[in-house]
Amino acid sequence: MHGTTMIVIIVFISVGFGVIGSMHKRHLAFKEKSLNKSQQDNENNQLQEQVTTLEERVQVLEKIVTDEGYAVQKEINNL
């Protein structure tokens, strides 16, 4: 093998490993983004459930406070 052939082969090998390394980094970044999206979806679902529960509790409290019996009892307690 001649010296120039060896140099060309070394350059091709170096470039090939560089391209493969770059592709691997991009693949890992994609996997990380998809994992983060999955975690965010789970967190969003949990938060949505909490909001729904709190809305139901607020509706119950509004019914209690706007009930006439509650207002009368409050007036009696204030006397």
Task: Give a structural overview.
It is a single chain. By secondary structure, the chain is an all-alpha fold. It starts with a helix and ends with a helix. The longest helix has 64 residues, at 3-66. It contains 2 helices and no strands. 95% of the residues lie in helices and 0% in strands. The protein is rod-shaped, with a radius of gyration of 33 Å. The chain has helices at 3-66, 68-78. It has one domain.
**Proportion of β residues?**
under 5%
Helix content: over 70%
Spatial shape? rod-shaped
How many structural domains can be distinguished in the coordinates?
1
- Rg to the nearest angstrom? 33 Å
Task: Assign the structural class, choosing from mainly alpha, mainly beta, alpha/beta, alpha+beta, or little secondary structure.
Answer: mainly alpha
| Main beta-sheet strand count, sense and barrel state | none
Low-pLDDT stretches: none
Order of helices and strands: HH
Q: What gap, in angstroms, lies between the N and C termini?
A: 108 Å
Write down how many β-strands occur, each being a DSSP E stretch of 2 or more residues: 0
Overall mean pLDDT stands at 87
Count of DSSP helices?
Answer: 2
Chart the SSEs and their pairings:
Blueprint: H1 3-66, H2 68-78
Write a compact overview of the structure shown:
By secondary structure, this protein is an all-alpha fold. Helices cover 95% and strands 0% of the residues.
Distinctive features:
79 residues; 95% helix; rod-shaped
